[in-house]
Amino acid sequence: MSIDDFDERASDWAVKHNPVFGSEEAAKDASDYIRDGLLAETYVTALLTPSGDDPKSIALAKIKGGLVEGAGLWAVSAATDELKDAVGRERPDGSSVRSFPSGHTSAAFGGARLSNRNLDAIEMHPGLRNTFKSINLAAASTVGWARVEGEKHYPADVLAGAALGNFITTFIHDAFIGIPREEMPVELYIEPSPQGVWGSVGWDF
Hints:
This protein has helices spanning 6-17, 24-48, 55-87, 103-121, 126-149, 155-176; strands at 186-193, 196-203. Strands 1-2 form a two-stranded antiparallel sheet. It is mainly alpha-helical. Helix 3 (55-87) packs antiparallel against helix 4 and helix 4 runs antiparallel to helix 5. The mean pLDDT is 87.
């Protein structure tokens, strides 16, 4: 990102052209709404996961799941705040020195990853499951881009936030819940570039 000032140039281009949201304010509002939606989905999907046959085991499983996933999201927030304080990078709009990493993006990807883990445990058609999971990752990526377009973060801040949210929530969820899951065969990625936004699709075979 630091080669040839790509980070700053990509941010300047996004703010100047607003190719997706049309304005900085619309981008900021969208990042709030989509992030909050992904976080809410985390708890909704957790409630829908199978949890046993009797009321006691169901209640215990739901409490455990809620605590683990809540702890994962809290850990993402705490790690993001610590890094913001340690790095002290100025935001593109100059409003503060808490640009790196993006908190909206780390929360969005944390919520998306936990929701996708929950979807792995819910009985449904594999095609429908993969569609929901792809939508979650696309929505989290949209939050990241909105923060760049809203002049709150540079692309590197967003990528770091995405990595942080993914890693911490995945680690905590799999360490403490350990539900067998089906790997998603298709992954969707959306990233900014100086010429616009480009996407890619990858899969294991």
